[in-house]
Amino acid sequence: MADEAAARTDFADLVRRRMGELKIGFRAVAERAVDPSAPSDGPLWTKGTLENLVNGKSIKAPGPAQLSALGAALEVPLRLLQDAAAAQWFGMETITVQGSEGDLETRLLVRRYQAMSPEDRRRLQIIAETYDPS
Length: 134
What we know:
Layout: H1 2-6, H2 10-22, H3 26-32, H4 47-54, H5 64-74, H6 78-90, E1 92-98, E2 105-111, H7 118-130
Antiparallel strand pairs: 1-2
Protein backbone atom coordinates (compact mmCIF):
# COMPACT_ATOMS: atom_id res chain seq x y z
CA MET A 1 0.00 0.00 0.00
CA ALA A 2 2.81 2.45 0.78
CA ASP A 3 4.29 2.09 -2.71
CA GLU A 4 0.86 2.45 -4.27
CA ALA A 5 0.09 5.58 -2.26
CA ALA A 6 3.59 7.01 -2.75
CA ALA A 7 3.13 6.98 -6.51
CA ARG A 8 0.04 9.17 -6.27
CA THR A 9 0.28 12.96 -6.62
CA ASP A 10 -3.41 13.92 -6.47
CA PHE A 11 -2.99 16.35 -3.57
CA ALA A 12 0.20 17.94 -4.90
CA ASP A 13 -1.39 18.30 -8.34
CA LEU A 14 -4.44 20.02 -6.87
CA VAL A 15 -2.29 22.46 -4.90
CA ARG A 16 -0.09 23.19 -7.92
CA ARG A 17 -3.09 23.72 -10.20
CA ARG A 18 -4.87 26.08 -7.77
CA MET A 19 -1.71 28.10 -7.17
CA GLY A 20 -1.44 28.57 -10.93
CA GLU A 21 -5.11 29.51 -11.28
CA LEU A 22 -4.86 32.03 -8.46
CA LYS A 23 -1.43 33.19 -9.67
CA ILE A 24 0.04 33.04 -6.17
CA GLY A 25 3.33 31.68 -4.90
CA PHE A 26 4.37 29.48 -2.01
CA ARG A 27 4.90 32.35 0.41
CA ALA A 28 1.43 33.79 -0.25
CA VAL A 29 -0.23 30.38 0.18
CA ALA A 30 1.67 29.78 3.43
CA GLU A 31 0.62 33.17 4.80
CA ARG A 32 -3.02 32.60 3.84
CA ALA A 33 -3.13 29.01 5.18
CA VAL A 34 -5.05 29.74 8.37
CA ASP A 35 -7.78 27.42 9.63
CA PRO A 36 -10.98 29.52 9.61
CA SER A 37 -12.21 27.73 12.75
CA ALA A 38 -9.04 28.66 14.69
CA PRO A 39 -7.56 31.85 13.21
CA SER A 40 -5.57 32.57 16.37
CA ASP A 41 -3.43 29.50 15.58
CA GLY A 42 -1.99 31.40 12.61
CA PRO A 43 -0.67 29.82 9.41
CA LEU A 44 -0.48 26.01 9.47
CA TRP A 45 1.70 25.51 6.38
CA THR A 46 5.23 26.70 5.73
CA LYS A 47 6.64 27.83 2.43
CA GLY A 48 9.20 25.00 2.57
CA THR A 49 6.60 22.30 3.17
CA LEU A 50 4.50 23.56 0.26
CA GLU A 51 7.57 23.64 -1.99
CA ASN A 52 8.45 20.08 -0.98
CA LEU A 53 4.89 18.92 -1.66
CA VAL A 54 4.65 20.48 -5.11
CA ASN A 55 8.17 19.39 -6.06
CA GLY A 56 7.45 15.75 -5.29
CA LYS A 57 9.36 15.43 -2.04
CA SER A 58 7.87 13.39 0.76
CA ILE A 59 5.91 15.25 3.42
CA LYS A 60 3.76 14.03 6.29
CA ALA A 61 0.04 13.67 5.50
CA PRO A 62 -1.81 16.81 6.60
CA GLY A 63 -4.31 16.72 9.44
CA PRO A 64 -7.85 18.14 9.44
CA ALA A 65 -6.84 21.65 10.54
CA GLN A 66 -4.10 21.80 7.89
CA LEU A 67 -6.56 20.70 5.21
CA SER A 68 -9.03 23.36 6.30
CA ALA A 69 -6.31 26.02 6.31
CA LEU A 70 -5.10 25.05 2.85
CA GLY A 71 -8.68 25.05 1.59
CA ALA A 72 -9.04 28.63 2.79
CA ALA A 73 -5.70 29.65 1.26
CA LEU A 74 -6.45 28.10 -2.12
CA GLU A 75 -10.18 28.86 -2.10
CA VAL A 76 -10.97 25.18 -2.61
CA PRO A 77 -13.76 23.18 -0.95
CA LEU A 78 -12.44 21.08 1.92
CA ARG A 79 -13.98 17.99 0.38
CA LEU A 80 -11.71 18.21 -2.68
CA LEU A 81 -8.61 18.40 -0.50
CA GLN A 82 -9.80 15.49 1.64
CA ASP A 83 -10.38 13.34 -1.44
CA ALA A 84 -7.00 14.24 -2.93
CA ALA A 85 -5.21 13.56 0.37
CA ALA A 86 -6.94 10.17 0.70
CA ALA A 87 -5.75 9.26 -2.78
CA GLN A 88 -2.17 10.51 -2.42
CA TRP A 89 -1.33 9.26 1.06
CA PHE A 90 -3.61 6.26 1.46
CA GLY A 91 -4.26 5.04 -2.08
CA MET A 92 -8.01 5.48 -1.63
CA GLU A 93 -10.49 6.57 -4.29
CA THR A 94 -13.52 8.57 -3.25
CA ILE A 95 -16.67 7.65 -5.11
CA THR A 96 -20.08 9.24 -4.75
CA VAL A 97 -23.21 7.14 -4.97
CA GLN A 98 -26.68 8.60 -5.42
CA GLY A 99 -29.39 6.97 -3.36
CA SER A 100 -32.21 5.11 -5.05
CA GLU A 101 -34.47 8.11 -4.47
CA GLY A 102 -31.89 10.35 -6.12
CA ASP A 103 -31.87 12.66 -3.13
CA LEU A 104 -29.33 10.97 -0.88
CA GLU A 105 -25.64 11.05 -1.58
CA THR A 106 -23.07 8.73 -0.06
CA ARG A 107 -19.31 9.11 -0.29
CA LEU A 108 -17.20 5.97 -0.10
CA LEU A 109 -13.46 5.59 0.23
CA VAL A 110 -12.48 2.55 -1.77
CA ARG A 111 -9.06 1.01 -2.18
CA ARG A 112 -8.14 0.03 -5.76
CA TYR A 113 -11.45 1.22 -7.20
CA GLN A 114 -9.88 1.77 -10.64
CA ALA A 115 -8.77 -1.88 -10.71
CA MET A 116 -12.31 -3.16 -10.08
CA SER A 117 -14.30 -4.65 -12.90
CA PRO A 118 -17.44 -2.81 -13.98
CA GLU A 119 -19.47 -5.60 -12.38
CA ASP A 120 -17.70 -5.18 -9.03
CA ARG A 121 -18.14 -1.41 -9.20
CA ARG A 122 -21.86 -1.89 -9.79
CA ARG A 123 -22.10 -4.34 -6.86
CA LEU A 124 -20.44 -1.80 -4.61
CA GLN A 125 -22.86 0.87 -5.78
CA ILE A 126 -25.84 -1.39 -5.06
CA ILE A 127 -24.54 -2.13 -1.56
CA ALA A 128 -24.12 1.60 -0.86
CA GLU A 129 -27.57 2.44 -2.27
CA THR A 130 -29.41 -0.22 -0.30
CA TYR A 131 -27.52 -0.22 3.00
CA ASP A 132 -29.78 0.87 5.87
CA PRO A 133 -28.12 0.95 9.30
CA SER A 134 -31.43 1.26 11.16
